[in-house]
Write a structure and sequence with these properties.
Elements lengths: L2 H20 L2 E2 L5 H4 L1 E2 L3 H8 L3 H31 L4 H12 L6 H12 L10 H8 L16 H25 L4 H9 L4 H25 L7 H7 L5 H4 L2 H11 L3 H30 L5
Antiparallel strand pairs: 1-2
Helix pairs in contact: 1-14, 3-14, 4-8, 4-10, 5-8, 6-11, 8-10, 10-14, 13-14
Length: 292
């Protein structure tokens, strides 16, 4: 019985290595890792001619960049506005409401958003957002937020910002508490208004945190959000919504091209590793942040 936990520990420790080996093999489940044919870099050469790889890489970068920019600008703006509120009860209520979506998984949120954003054809099956936009006269026909390839990436970016901005805003609010109140009092005596105080005191005071949040996000630039996109995308938006992680899923689990999917995953891991190293170097240089 003692051998069972030991065997499981061995499998879980070395399973990622087996996956790495698959990227250099023509892996056949019936033959296993040891007997499958070794093909060297052939799978990586195949990536260059794979029709879905370059679009998936492009979509990953564009969606991830949109999320990174949005998850810095929106929470920062929200934190600055929330910091001006003097009513503590109202302030805490707003913080709590905006923070709640962060605790929900994309499995739950995807089901909510699918119903909320449904295009529909009649009033009974049209999503709530389309009904609002139609009632206020912004659109004449329901918008297909999840089925239009031009709109889908923006839907993913905006919904991700909505989910995370409450949490990110707390980081900036914490940074704002570290600014010396005496600076605001001195500037007010000199005649500076709230805008000048924000521009010349508040922003410079939290710029290290802004830089830190930005450079740390660089390491996740190839993580465009598998859980989110997988639960809301469809074949109609593959052209602009397919990312590296969903491509790996389709190649490996749907098409059973195990070695090719492992090669795509390995490519992503290598590039992500390089970006993480670069981001930590930048964090150390511009924000003084070091892991070790």
């Amino acid at each position: 019985m003692v051998l069972i936990p030991v065997a499981l520990l061995f499998v879980f420790n070395y399973l990622p290595i087996f996956g790495l080996v698959m990227a250099f093999q023509d892996f056949q489940p019936g033959l296993g890792f040891l007997n499958s044919k070794w093909v060297g870099l052939d799978n990586f050469r195949t990536l260059l001619y794979l029709p879905d790889f370059i679009p998936a890489l492009r979509n990953t970068l564009l969606i991830a960049l949109g999320k990174i920019i949005g998850n810095i600008v929106v929470p920062l703006t929200f934190a600055l506005m929330l910091n001006e509120i003097k009513n503590k009860i109202f302030k805490k209520t707003v913080q709590t409401v905006t923070y709640l979506p962060y605790f929900l998984s994309w499995i739950v949120l995807s089901g909510i958003l699918i119903n909320f954003l449904t295009q529909g054809n009649t009033g009974n099956d049209t999503g709530f957002l389309n009904l609002i936009l139609q009632n206020i006269g912004l659109i004449d026909e329901p918008v297909n937020f999840l089925g239009d390839k031009q709109i889908f990436p923006w839907t993913m970016i905006i919904s991700d910002i909505w989910k995370n901005f409450g949490y990110n805003a707390i980081v900036y609010l914490a940074a704002l508490t570290g600014i010396d109140p005496g600076l605001y009092e001195a500037s007010a005596i000199d005649g500076a208004g709230r805008w000048k105080q924000t521009w010349h005191i508040t922003i410079p005071g939290i710029i290290p945190i802004i830089i830190l949040m930005t450079v740390l996000a660089i390491g996740n630039i190839l993580n465009a959000g598998f859980d989110q996109i997988f639960n809301m995308y469809s074949a109609s938006v593959y052209e602009t919504g397919d990312i590296i992680d969903t491509l790996v899923y389709r190649l490996g689990l749907i098409n059973q091209q195990y070695s090719l999917s492992a090669a795509v995953g390995f490519f992503k891991s290598v590039v992500s590793g390089i970006l993480i190293v670069v981001s930590y170097k930048l964090a150390d240089k511009f924000a003084g942040y070091r892991v070790f």
